[in-house]
Amino acid sequence: MSLFFGLLCTSPDIQRVNPFPGDEGRINLIIRTYEPNVQCTSSPASSPSYGNCLNLVGKQMPNDKELKVFGRREFVTVKEVLPMTIVDSSKWITPDTRKCQLVVNTRGPVDNAAWYDIWGAAVAIDAMCGRKNQGGIAPGLGENKNLFAILKKYDAPVEGGIDTDE
Asked: Which residues are CB-contacts of 123 (< 8 A; sequence separation ≥ 6)?
């Protein structure tokens, strides 16, 4: 068992990171048990840069608590089309820095989840794997446990490559 600490500030500059501001300008501290289901990758070639993952998870990905339908495009009820990739957009990335990306996907047709839970899984991957310079996966997300999140190195598409889908 692990303890999950969430420090939630009320600054409008970091509202995306902290979706539940305290009353009257106070800070809320959420402490609850959390059982992470995280598997780290061992390949250094797939490892993102730890600082870039902190930036992606902390500042760039959605984290609201509203339940949404995640799934493949062909299902009309889907609000979040999968697979989905969120790539770190830091301005301070240098050519030798390994960009970070979060991939959210599903093993089933559709599932209901809040971005907050996917964000929590990404935080767990980053905390457990990123500090060892590894990527990782958190399976079993969503109400039906069909969703999974992968935090890994971003592999940019090759320009001028050969299209093999013909």
From this structure: 57
Helix (H, G, I), strand (E, B) or coil at 60: helix
- The alpha carbon of 94 is separated from its chain's Cα centroid by a whole number of angstroms, namely 22
Contact 54, 92 (CB under 8 A): no
Instruction: Take residue 145 and report the two structure tokens written for it.
Output: 């446990």
In angstroms, the Cα distances linking 90 to 6, 32, 63, 75, 101 are 23, 31, 19, 33, 12
- pLDDT, tens digit, 9 for 90 and up, residues 129-163: 887 878 899 999 999 999 999 998 876 654 544 43
Tell me the residue type at 4: F
> Which of 118, 22, 122 is CA-nearest to residue 8?
22
What is the model's pTM? Answer: 0.71
